[in-house]
Amino acid sequence: MLMDANQFADDLSVLALDKVKVIVTSATVTTASMTVRDQVVLVTTVGGNALTLTLPSVKQAKGRIYSIRLIAAVGSATIQDLGDDAALSDVTLAAAAAAAVFYSDGFKWCQIYSA
Question: 0.70 cut: is pTM over it?
Fold first, then answer.
């Protein structure tokens, strides 16, 4: 039986396509956490609601690249590391089409792109 990449997506021992996570803020959605498989995150802030987005553990994300883009903005998105495990300074995306890309070397987060 043939299987597609999505059937493997929850098994870290099997390489699968990057997963795309879409987040839309609301009065009840103001925080979100990424898993190691959420390598592309698209955020829409509405109603002036800001979002705080937490990157996965720097150790578990070793060797991975994460891209976060603010699609539409009537609020901002602040990106932080998990429990300050890598001493990353928070990054705030405030304008539509703003983006940031991060790389984990297993010890710290490196911001490799910002626009």
Answer: yes
